């Protein structure tokens, strides 16, 4: 469990200071000139253990990541509950958990911390930066901040600014959690409901019709059992305070904020070779969002994955994503190999 | 406030009996041979006062309903909280409110009650039956039960069987309400959250992007203020128990249930001249559902409304619906006039 200590005082974008914060990260393979660096930015409820949540990106499962050629790095983001400093951490100023007093974290704060880690690892070149959903938002930020470091990036089911639609879904998940905050039993129940609401934005009409039709032997709707199962699974594994911090991080994503120019102008400043991948059934980050990025980022490519899985296809369709990465980064990346 | 008494013992589809139940209904105009009868089936949270929730259907607002030619009838559905017997009514067996002990009501029960009302009004011919959403589900049921009575019907943003997707949205609204059921403050708050979750299914990405973008002067997201406003407005006006009864009515809608044949076969038995209207941005009752109905109902027409308003366009776009009704029912209906 490698842990990277951030500077004693880590200044956030909003001016607040995190003391003695650290990042949990994982490296598969070694950092050397013989290996290409793939840095993966995880999504909302992800962790630094890429293989656990994105197995289909790996060679052994039909994906492109090959341990002989690639070194994979992933760091858990600030504000999460999977090893990096977040609301479940002890605040050194009070010796108590931060809880709901954890400061607001922006995607730029996340990248600032990643850059600190990158430097400590003596990495001066990232061959491919990959991010889906929230992770794609962060990757795009990184490519704007360190264009000389990020050679290629794949932004999957992501956007340049979070939509009112996406904010609405996140807000209602937070409101469901707040509704249950009165007592610990229902607080736990409430994060399950938040997860189930999120599932409506992660999946699609066709996915539910194809896979969760009708009733089961107990005369319950299969879709209800399925959603309840997803909620139960999630209960034990995520912090309600992290849910607030990370969903607000997503809501506030806007690459044009505190920069000099319109969204389109900022996109046009991206120097990294960029591949935007969209999913045709994605209700949460619809195709037009990847289209906008691809249109304005110089020389960017847009690829569309046909899937009925909705937004979650970015996790499920790692093999298709792998083929698109191989195809589009061949010139810039694979020929070098 | 006309009230129609149903038979002392009203037997429901599931075998349970409602005692001394009644329907609240409204009639605009008189029932005579000189007037054409338009019967409107209201949607989930609607009432018998059509003009209050569907004003754009009326001539004075650009719609087709003309008091000189039409008599409009609408009855509040069983299980609702707008005048017909529902969970807020007194159970004559206990002299207490039914509350959550109100029996399950099906769309067929609703139509059985409407037929009882129709007969009491000596109506033997309904020129146009109109229903949107849940109301369209009920209209379709009625046309199967009384083909000789219903001459024309417009089924708007509706379906022949409710989808797993739709059930998922309804279920999570019910779960949010249950989460708040522990105390009365949060129960009230919970129905507001249920309404806000519903808004996500009633509207669309484009609607929110166009109309609720960015932040207001208090630095709150406009979309959040908008949803909170919708939730607040709803709090006072709907019963949580009715919310359960009516959303389950919708979930259980399936014209093939307890009938002899597949969904497609049952649709092919419809004798009423049918117009199916879909909305291109409808996420809750997507176009394919109206397409399925139009494909299998003999001689049915399918019309598509272009709107960014999502499912709610069925309420908002009454003028467009009026033009489609005029156009499609001209032969069967207007030439008779």
Automatic annotation (TrEMBL), chains A, B:
Residue runs in coiled coils: none
Main enzyme class: transferase
Annotated organism of origin: Marivirga arenosa
Keyword Membrane: no
Biological role: Transfers an acetyl group from acetyl-CoA to L-homoserine, forming acetyl-L-homoserine.
AB hydrolase-1 domain segment(s): 39-315
Keyword Secreted set for record: no
Higher taxonomy: Bacteria, Pseudomonadati, Bacteroidota, Cytophagia, Cytophagales
Localization: Cytoplasm
EC number: 2.3.1.31
One of the record's GO molecular function terms: homoserine O-acetyltransferase activity
Residues annotated for substrate binding in this entry: 195, 312
Active site: 133, 282, 311
Main localization of the protein described in the UniProt heading: cytoplasm
Gene Ontology BP terms: homoserine metabolic process; methionine biosynthetic process
Keywords in alphabetical order: Acyltransferase, Amino-acid biosynthesis, Cytoplasm, Methionine biosynthesis, Transferase
Protein name, as recorded: Homoserine O-acetyltransferase
Subunit structure, interactors included: Homodimer.
Family that this chain belongs to: Belongs to the AB hydrolase superfamily. MetX family.
Pfam families linked to this entry: Abhydrolase_1 (PF00561)
Catalytic activity, as annotated: L-homoserine + acetyl-CoA = O-acetyl-L-homoserine + CoA
Pathway(s): Amino-acid biosynthesis; L-methionine biosynthesis via de novo pathway; O-acetyl-L-homoserine from L-homoserine: step 1/1
A cellular-component GO term for this protein: cytoplasm
């Amino acid at each position: 469990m490698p842990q990277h200590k951030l500077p004693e005082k880590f200044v956030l974008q909003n001016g607040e200071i995190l003391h003695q914060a650290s990042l949990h990260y994982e490296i598969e393979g070694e950092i050397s000139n013989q290996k290409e660096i793939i840095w993966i930015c995880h999504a909302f409820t992800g962790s630094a253990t890429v293989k656990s949540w994105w197995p289909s990106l790996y060679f052994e499962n039909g994906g492109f990541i090959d341990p002989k050629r690639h070194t994979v790095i992933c760091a858990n983001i600030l504000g999460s509950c999977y090893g990096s400093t977040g609301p479940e951490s002890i605040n050194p100023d009070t010796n108590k958990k931060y809880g709901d007093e954890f400061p607001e974290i922006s995607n730029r704060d996340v990248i600032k911390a990643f850059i600190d880690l990158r430097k400590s690892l003596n990495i001066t070149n990232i061959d491919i930066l990959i991010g889906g959903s929230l992770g794609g938002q962060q990757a795009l930020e990184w490519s704007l901040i360190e264009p000389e470091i990020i050679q290629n990036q794949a932004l999957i089911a992501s956007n340049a600014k979070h939509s009112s639609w996406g904010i609405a879904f996140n807000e209602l998940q937070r409101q469901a959690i707040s509704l249950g905050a009165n007592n610990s039993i229902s607080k736990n129940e409430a994060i399950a409901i938040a997860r189930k609401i999120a599932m409506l934005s992660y999946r699609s009409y066709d996915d539910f019709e194809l896979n969760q039709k009708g009733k089961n032997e107990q005369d319950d709707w299969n879709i209800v059992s399925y959603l309840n199962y997803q909620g139960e699974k999630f209960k034990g594994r995520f912090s309600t305070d992290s849910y607030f911090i990370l969903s607000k991080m997503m809501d506030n994503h806007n690459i044009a904020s505190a920069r000099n120019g319109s969204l389109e102008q900022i996109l046009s400043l991206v120097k990294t070779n960029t591949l935007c991948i969209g999913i045709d059934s994605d209700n949460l980050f619809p195709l037009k969002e990847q289209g906008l990025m691809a249109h304005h980022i110089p020389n960017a490519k847009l690829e569309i994955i046909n899937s009925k899985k909705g937004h979650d296809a970015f996790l499920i369709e790692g093999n298709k994503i792998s083929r698109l990465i191989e195809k589009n980064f061949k010139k810039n990346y694979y020929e070098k190999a």
